[in-house]
Specification:
It is built from five helices and seven strands, in the order βαββαβαβαβαβ. With about 210 residues, it is α/β, with parallel strands linked by helices. The chain has a seven-stranded parallel sheet with strand order 3-2-1-4-5-6-7, sandwiched between helices. Helix 1 crosses helix 5, helix 2 packs across helix 3 and helix 3 packs parallel to helix 4. It starts with a strand and ends with a strand.
Length: about 210
């Protein structure tokens, strides 16, 4: 059975992703910054060293083996610029590097996927929020990592538009060619990229 670490995997989109992956036969390890969330690992990714603790905690759960895949879903939408940088950019980038280190060491090809934001695609703008700025840099980091670790770690990005999750009932869809994407639309892209053995450096916009 293949294994996957899903950060922020107990609420909203992350919970659905974890469920879909489990249904598809993956051994899923989830993380959350909240105690009592039901996550397998509690890790506040805004704190220094938390990404490393999370990764090695996941290894412990998996009997000493690194996960076959990583889904960097955890995100902070509001907070200080430092907190947003830590959670939305530094922690996921560090987790990708830890996955690469494992694959380089044992020769096993693994997959890392980052959840970005459709608004973070394209050139920067003076009106970018700290969240969008961090997500834009995450996309750049992931594409660079795909090139840097080619041959033993596949790194891809899914960039959703505004997703109507269950807790957002009654919210109208933003203008988009095909309407507001549903969480399952995002999950479909995630499942595809995790299984697409010859695809790396891809950025798939959903919505």
């Amino acid at each position: 059975m293949k294994s996957v670490l899903v950060t922020g995997g107990t609420v909203r989109l992350g919970r659905l992703l974890a469920g879909r992956l489990s249904d598809a036969g993956w051994k899923v390890v989830t993380s959350s910054h909240r105690s009592g969330s039901g996550a397998d690992i509690v890790a506040d990714l805004s704190q220094s060293g938390a990404a490393d603790s999370l990764f090695y905690g996941c290894r412990d759960i998996l009997g000493g083996s690194a996960p076959d895949a990583l889904v960097n879903n955890a995100a902070l939408f509001r907070g200080t610029a430092e907190e947003l940088e830590a959670v939305d950019l530094a922690a996921p980038a560090r987790l990708v590097e830890l996955m690469a280190r494992e694959s380089a060491g044992d020769g096993k090809v693994r997959s890392a996927l980052c959840i970005a934001d459709a608004d973070a695609l394209g050139p920067s703008s003076p009106g970018d929020t700290p969240y969008i700025s961090a997500k834009r840099r995450l996309v750049e980091s992931a594409v660079a990592a795909a090139k840097r670790h080619s041959g033993f770690l596949r790194v891809n990005v899914v960039a959703p538009g505004p997703v109507l999750v269950p807790t957002c009932g009654g919210v109208k869809a933003s203008p988009a060619p095909f309407g507001r994407p549903a969480p399952d639309d995002v999950a479909d892209a995630v499942l595809f990229l995790l299984s697409a053995r010859c695809t790396t450096g891809a950025v798939i916009r959903v919505g």
